[in-house]
Design goal:
The protein is an alpha/beta fold. About 40% of the residues lie in helices and about 10% in strands. α2 packs across α6, α3 packs across α6 and α10 runs antiparallel to α11.
Length: about 475
């Protein structure tokens, strides 16, 4: 679990999350054991901090993937301590970058929030100006009441400024520290990513785990997307598949399914075929033998264990506004394989690669290299081997995005939104509003909150899918 922005204390997020997906779940915990929903909080060196602990469960009920049930360990990637210390100048500079852009470059779904931000900024400026006007000037224009209460305006301006400074730098300052690649932020960004990559590497070591699920919230979804991208790119061994191996048939199936999705308005049936191919390939990669215990280097580990990526209230929905200069800039970053999408970008083939693909008799290529695209390529140093390119983690990782459409900024979740249009049609977008109507409150921090509206908890449990049940997850949040 990767938390979002704010002043979270270690373990607060993960404990609330475990309560929602395990301790109050009456179906998968019906294991006929004493205290079936019990969990244990244990020290674990993988967390990288003595402030963090691993939460582990009892066995679940049986499933097709786990005939004897499965125990789940929950970890929190805590990173708030690494992004503290943003200055007021850094924050105001970031806000200026959001405000001082043409309206045409503000996506329609955040224009109301953009206008509200402008109104708030103008109100702060107006309050400061009014407080700076001398009392005698108010008397000259016969505004004696403002002259008498001039000190109150100054007090309100100072108090509001101090409050805004504290809230902005402590909370939104973390957004600045992570999303903006200024020289003063580089060290913090590096430290956060190194901590995340170290945890993912530690979880891959040995044979203790068979499957890893990444769940992220808010700003944590942007961090998680980066970590998944970097971790996949670093691990060449899992991305390489020999033509003579059983995994090659699964790769060819995925290539065919991705080609079908890479067309205008892919149908639900076409997407289902892609999800099935995704699952088949990732199961094959996870089943590879682990490296020997005496040489447990992750760089040579051929396995890939991350199966699902769940985003909750993700600001990636506004990527063209927050991390790119425009929609065109965002599209260019994806084309350059800087930002992975689902399904992965299919690359044009040169004549030599086309001939090698055609020679396999299995990879789906067209009549010539100009009409053929693939997600994989043959590395020059390895004959009869195909390698998924460095921006293709979603060839094997299913991406589920949960959001709550907002109304009037403060009803629902203005921060989150659908991702399929921005990051690929294979993303499963689930809108909570479509399931239970428009929320009457701000819901950005309520995706795992236990309250009188359990629909979002049902959606969360289905998305996390602890038992690894096969099959499609509908946009309605159910799994047939």
């Amino acid at each position: 679990m990767i938390h979002g922005m704010g002043e979270q204390r270690p373990m607060d997020t993960i404990k609330a999350f475990v309560k929602a997906v395990w301790e109050t779940e009456e179906v998968i915990t019906a294991n006929k054991l004493p205290h079936p929903t019990q969990v244990w909080s244990k020290p674990d060196v993988r967390t990288g901090s003595l402030e963090l602990r691993r939460i582990t469960t009892r066995e679940s009920i049986a499933s097709a993937s786990f005939p004897r049930g499965v125990r789940t360990d929950f970890y929190e990637l805590y990173w708030a301590d690494l992004t503290a210390g943003s200055t007021w100048d850094q924050f105001t500079g970031w806000v200026r970058g959001l405000l001082l852009r043409p309206l045409s470059r503000v996506p329609p779904d955040v224009r109301l929030a953009w206008v509200v931000l402008w109104i708030a900024a103008l109100a702060v400026v107006a309050l400061a100006v009014l407080a700076a006007v001398p009392a005698d000037s108010w008397r000259k224009i016969h505004a004696d009441w403002l002259a008498e209460w001039h000190w109150l305006l100054a007090f309100v301006a100072a108090a509001f400024g101090a409050w805004l400074h504290k809230i902005a730098t402590a909370t939104f300052g973390r957004v600045v520290r992570y999303t903006k690649a200024d020289p003063s932020n580089i060290a913090a960004r590096q430290a956060v990513r190194e901590r995340g990559l170290k945890l993912l590497s530690a979880l891959h070591e040995g044979t203790h785990y068979k499957r890893i699920i990444i769940v992220s919230h808010s700003l944590g979804t942007m961090l998680a997307h980066d970590l998944l991208s970097y971790f996949w790119a670093q691990r060449e061994a899992p991305r390489r598949i020999a033509e003579t191996s059983p995994e090659f048939d699964a790769l060819c199936e995925l290539e065919r399914a991705a080609a079908a999705v890479d067309r205008p308005n892919p149908t639900a049936a076409v997407l289902d075929e892609y999800y099935a191919a995704q699952r088949r390939l990732r199961v094959a990669l996870a089943a590879r033998p682990a490296p020997p215990a005496q040489n447990p280097q992750t760089s040579s580990d051929p396995r890939w264990l991350i199966t699902d990526f769940v985003t909750l209230g993700s600001p990636l929905a506004h990527a063209e506004f927050l991390i790119a200069a425009s929609a065109e800039d965002l599209a260019q970053r994806k084309f350059e394989r800087e930002l992975p999408e689902s399904p992965p970008l299919r690359e044009d083939l040169d004549p030599n690669v086309f001939r090698l693909a055609q020679a396999t008799g299995k990879l789906p290529v067209g009549p010539d290299f100009k009409t053929s695209k693939l997600i994989s390529f043959p590395p020059p140093s390895a004959p009869h081997v195909w390698e998924l390119h460095h921006a293709a983690p979603f060839a094997v990782v299913r991406w589920i995005n949960v959001y709550d459409t907002a109304s009037l900024v403060f009803r629902g979740d203005i921060i989150g939104g659908p991702l399929a249009n921005a990051f690929g049609p294979a993303i499963i977008d689930i809108d909570l509003k479509s399931l239970r109507g428009q929320s009457r409150s701000f819901t950005h921090t309520k995706y795992w909150e236990l309250d009188g509206e359990p629909i979002h908890i049902d959606v969360l449990r289905t998305a996390v899918n602890l038992l690894d049940r096969p099959g499609r997850i509908n946009r309605s949040g159910s799994q047939p």
